[in-house]
Amino acid sequence: MPVNTLNETESHFQGKVALITGASRGIGAAVARCLARAGVDLVINHREGRGRSGKMAEELCREAEAEGVRAIAVPADIAKKDAVEALFTRAEEEFGRLDFLVLNAARAPFKPWEKLLERDLRQLVDTNYLGNVFCMQKAIAPLSRRGGAVVFLSSLGSRFVNPDYPLGSMKAAMESAVKYWAESWGEQGISVNAVCAGLVMTDSFKTLRMVNPDLENLPERFFLSPEEVAGVVQYLLGPASGVIRGQTVVADKGVSNRLLWPSPPG
Question: Is 180 labeled as catalytic in the residue annotation?
Answer without folding.
Answer: no
